[in-house]
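ok so I'm stuck.
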Amino acid sequence: MFRRELHVAQINPDVPLVDYGLDSIRSITLVVDMEATFDVRISDEQAASMLTLGDVVDRITALLTVNAGAGEGQA
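replied:
not stuck anymore, here's the structure
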């Protein structure tokens, strides 16, 4: 998803996404895509804190874990 939007072959998970050309418009597009793909809600504050691909993976993993935990015990 990020490689496609940023038009790069590879992304180092520790390099700031702005170094790959991420701007505010692309950032919004990626947040919307991630919300739809992973069925999560990403707040503006959360999006602003995701500076590297590693940050993105950590945040999405945390959101998916919370969502999975919320569904436990429901029939």
